[in-house]
Amino acid sequence: TEPSIKVVEYALTSSNPVSPQVKTIYAGAVLAGLLLPFSFLYLMFMFDTKVHTRDDIEKVTTNIPILAEIPEIKNKGSLLFTNPNSTSVLAESFRILAANVSYVLPKSDKISGKVIFSTSTIKGEGKTFVSLNLSLALASLNKKVLLIGADMRNPQIHTYFGTSKNQVGLSSYLNDASINWKELLMAGFDKHPKHRTLLSGAIPPNPAYLLTNGRFEKLLAEARTEFDYIIVDTAPTILVTDTLLISKFADVTLFLTKANYTDKKLLKLRY
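Below the sequence we write its predicted structure tokens.
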């Protein structure tokens, strides 16, 4: 029987596949490899609002000096300037800060101690860390230094001494007229015999009232006659008004800015 099916025209064949198109896929992969990283970096930089270098600060202000840059210390066991003869990066950076602070302090014929406030915009920018190490750096220069914890809402100095935050301190003196502030001073650092610390004390319900009742001003006036430098660790300025209420007592105020932490928008609030 003769077959009923026959081939009219044989199919055309080729060594290259019709689909997928290799050249098209390669071109799309190269294009995506270029666009995706650049798009990611663009979005990352566009939404990055943190301060990273001193140039970010200098763009906002030109009339306020940047006194020092404190490096980030990876070794958490060496965060304090405990050895006055230390030559570490931390020690040298605080020596630079101490020298520059002395330079910007107002000159006066009166022989009295200088009051230096240390503050920041928000908590976590390192004002307590800088206050303590700056006081130790000044004490290493054979100066009598008093460190006062005036951030009575969120005290942190006691953590460096391993004591309780409810220990008798500044808040107790401001609230009780019978307490002598000199009896509350702590030594704490054997290699810095001229360094003393007045802790914040128990957290009071009315810090702003205590700081403005006249006893804090009296404390500073008496401390000026006893010490060469009085370093005051104060509260953040954007959160509470405590620091603004006592700012008139400072000879110079240090504003702390932390890299990769402080928002650039906050620079306008401080400068």
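The first strand starts at residue 114 and ends at 120.
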